[in-house]
Description:
Blueprint: H1 3-15, H2 23-26, E1 42-47, H3 52-61, E2 66-72, H4 76-85, E3 90-92, H5 95-102, E4 108-111, H6 115-127, E5 131-135, H7 142-154, E6 159-162, H8 169-179, E7 186-193, H9 216-220, H10 247-263, E8 271-275, E9 288-295, E10 300-310, E11 330-331, H11 341-346, E12 356-357, E13 361-366, E14 369-374, E15 381-384, E16 387-389, H12 392-401, H13 411-414, H14 416-426, H15 436-451, E17 459-463, E18 468-469
Parallel strand pairs: 1-2, 1-4, 2-3, 4-5, 5-6, 7-10, 11-12
Antiparallel strand pairs: 7-13, 8-9, 8-17, 9-10, 13-14, 14-15, 15-16, 17-18
The protein binds nicotinamide-adenine-dinucleotide.
Nicotinamide-adenine-dinucleotide binds at residues 47-53, 72-75, 78, 95, 112-115, 117, 135-136, 162, 164, 218-219, 221, 234-236, 251, 341, 344-345, 347.
Amino acid sequence: MKKREFLKKSAILASTTALMPSFLMACKEEKLATKATPLTRLRTAHVGVGNMGAADLKDISSHKKVDVVALCDVDANNLAEAKKLHPNAKIFSDYRVMLKEMGDGIDAVIVSTPDHTHAPVSMMAMEMNKSVYCQKPLTHYVSEARAMKKLAEEKNLVTQMGIQVHSFYDYKLATLLIQSGIIGKVHTVRAWSPKNWGYDGPIPTGEDMVPETLDWNLWLGTSAKRPYKEGLYHPGNWRKLVDYGCGTLGDMGVHIFDTPYNALALDVPRTITNECREPNGFGFPENNRVTYEFPGTPYTAESLKWIWSDGPGAPDMHEDLKLPNASEITSANTESKEASVEEKMSLETKASGPGTLPEQGAMFIGDKGRLLLPHFMQLPTKIVDGEYVDISKEIAAIGIENNMGEPIRNYDSEGPKHYHQFVDACLGTDECTAPFSYASKLTETILLGVIANRFPNQTLNWDSSNAKFAEEEANNFLEGDYRDF
Ligand SMILES: NC(=O)c1ccc[n+]([C@@H]2O[C@H](COP(=O)([O-])OP(=O)(O)OC[C@H]3O[C@@H](n4cnc5c(N)ncnc54)[C@H](O)[C@@H]3O)[C@@H](O)[C@H]2O)c1
């Protein structure tokens, strides 16, 4: 079944469950729907409660006005752990059943499943007028990202993508510094992560017994039926595989792209080239070097070149990345290694020394210098003519003007901010800074780079207004088939 048919079916399912009107329906005509709601507490339903889902559950429920009323997971062990923390919540293994049965009893849905399930869950929830917090990347397909944005806007719903570092001090600061013109008009961005969510190995054969605690059919969801293999898909490793994840670009890339993308007010790119190995239709390449060309904005030169590199050994050596005091370009990434999911979740990065590039990060290159933004929890630094330039006065001025307070380098206190912003927006007292209107464009940009790995070293031309590549073959990857499950 094509995705749009499935989404239509979700809409029918949602509308036949006597779910409306929720408080949002009453406010349908309002511009800021939830601002006019009488909600004083938020009832949340969580889909996917293991790993990142557990972190999402903790941070959402740490808001004093949240009641966790439903938990859903296809892995009974993860569900049992979450239930211990929220004994009053109802539990489900199938999100469709959960949404149908809970109906008017929930206000917001938190989606923390693997990427291929984000859109099917979120679309059904939004059809039912629920506010949605969805993990990054927003979707697995470009068509889904556009559909999510459209529906959220049509229904005027509160939405947020799970890029929690968007709300951290250093990223907000870097955004404001760039927009203040601290390095002039930016003409190039280089961004990198040595993490490796690629798989260059053989396509596996055979089949393993599905654990009794896992509902494999529900895990596959709308994706094609496939035999279960221990350790290959669930948990976490689905990221490496084209049918479920989006590789390193869709994983770390979303976090690392976010600040430059936001700061430079970019739209989607015009051209995309991925230098990588030949596709095998199963796993993502272990190394990607994606070059994008974006139309200019008030903060950039006439056009902007953006170079992303990932995988073992990234970033590539380049003059743009050379730091003062470095005899040669050195990176904190000295060994190539694959990040564990735990490492990923903590988003830890090695500290960078004066002549050492941070393990992950972004370099903005403008006509008045360069700005290095490590990923993450470190101040940006400015470099002009091969020397560091003190920007403490600019930082102080921007801090005062924007009421930013002191930098907080504590994940536990910074982490919940993005989640609480979503809850407060649902309660009508705040606005989300990463709503689907923003998240869909950022995700589309990421996914265009992912599609380009099917056409190694070929420049693809993207026509955003018609949502089409000039290269007809590449259009086959903008959407996929949905299985009826
Ligand atoms: N924002 C961040 O910092 C961050 C960090 C890690 C992961 N993530 C994102 O969170 C999402 C999940 O990643 P993860 O590392 O936790 O993956 P994971 O595979 O470790 O865990 C996914 C959880 O969802 C459950 N699940 C899978 N399919 C389901 C379905 N159809 N219905 C209900 N539950 C289902 C699994 O059983 C498991 O509990 C991904 O989109 C990932 O990109 C974000």
